[in-house]
Structures are given as structure tokens and as C-alpha cells.
Specification:
The chain is α/β, with parallel strands linked by helices and about 180 residues long. About 50% of the residues lie in helices and about 10% in strands. It folds into two domains: about 55 residues; about 110 residues, no CATH class. The chain is built from six helices and four strands; from the N terminus they run ααααβααβββ. The relative contact order is 0.11.
Length: about 180
């Protein structure tokens, strides 16, 4: 009698788990099919990411980031290359990245590296100051370089520039400025 009871209990347990799995699958399918965000996440984002991972398997981390993030990552790498490690950099906002310059051609930025956290991950050990932090952090008074994107914020330096750069890193100190 004990073995028969155990088999019945095991059968009930298996049946409950199978029913729960079917209900879970039905709910998941309904959510994915009827919610556009989840549909995009499951059928577009996941598939393209897996394709990118497979295609970029042989690339270094830096090359994969450049491929995935595009011009935004190239800009942050340019800032990194043009500033010393002890620099305090004024970093543009998302609106600056997506703005249309008053002259010249708009840069193809997508805004993927426009927040401070993303910039710090690449620029460390440099300090990053954003427009929102001006006057609120002690580093705002110690800015050594201005990151220029789409020609914005050239007015933060006290010396005249030979050109009207759309994309550049300008030092705050006029003696450090090297014209092209």
C-alpha cells in the first residue's frame, strides 16, 4: 500500500508541474505576442544581439564596443586619447549629442554614450563633469578640458579658436591649445 501511495503522489506531482509549465508557456506566449515591447525584445533585440555576438567573437572588447556603439564610442575614445589621465573633462549632455550644429554637417551620434556613467567607464581615471553638476561639485571649478560635440560649448574657453570645431577636445588653458 505504501508503494502505491508514493506512485500516486509522484503522478500528481508530475501532473501539477506539467500543467504549471503549460500555463506558464501560455502566459509567456500571450505576453510576447500581445505586448509590442516584449515582442521587439524577444524577436528583434535578442536575435540581433546573438548574431552580433557570433559575428564579433574574434574581435577584442574595444573593437566590439566600437562596432556596437558606433560614433558615440569613437568620440569617447577620442576624448580619452586627447586628455591626460588626471584631467577633469566637461562632458556634453544627450541634447548636445543629438543637436544640429549651427554650421557644418550633423554628426551621426545616437546618444548611447551620452550619460555620465557610460563616459566614466571609458574615461576613468579622468574626472567627468556634466552641465547638471556645474556649481554642485568641487570638480566643476577644476575643469581642464571641454569636450566639444556638434560645435557646442566652445564659449567655455577664454581664448579664440582658429577654427570652429564641430568635434574636438579643447583645453581650458590657452597655453595648452594647439591649433590644427
Amino acid at each position: 500500500m505504501g508503494k502505491a501511495t508514493n506512485k500516486i503522489q509522484l503522478g500528481k506531482w508530475i501532473l501539477r508541474n506539467v500543467v504549471a509549465a503549460i500555463v506558464g508557456l501560455a502566459v509567456f506566449t500571450a505576453v510576447v505576442n500581445f505586448n509590442r515591447s516584449y515582442h521587439w525584445l524577444w524577436f528583434t533585440f535578442t536575435k540581433t544581439n546573438l548574431a552580433d555576438i557570433k559575428a564579433d567573437r574574434h574581435l577584442s572588447l574595444e573593437e566590439r564596443l566600437a562596432h556596437r556603439l558606433g560614433t558615440d564610442y569613437d568620440f569617447v575614445q577620442m576624448v580619452k586619447g586627447m586628455t591626460p589621465e588626471n584631467a577633469v573633462v566637461y562632458y556634453p549632455s544627450r541634447d548636445d549629442f543629438l543637436a544640429t550644429p549651427s554650421h557644418g554637417k550633423k554628426m551621426p551620434f545616437r546618444g548611447t554614450m551620452s550619460d555620465k556613467v557610460a563616459a566614466i567607464r571609458v574615461l576613468y581615471p579622468r574626472r567627468v563633469v556634466t552641465a547638471e553638476e556645474m556649481g554642485l561639485t568641487p570638480y566643476a571649478d577644476k575643469i581642464t578640458h571641454i569636450a566639444i560635440v556638434n560645435g557646442l560649448h566652445r564659449d567655455m574657453v577664454d581664448y579664440p579658436c582658429d577654427t570652429m570645431p564641430i568635434l574636438d577636445v579643447l583645453p581650458m588653458n590657452a597655453e595648452d591649445y594647439v591649433p590644427y
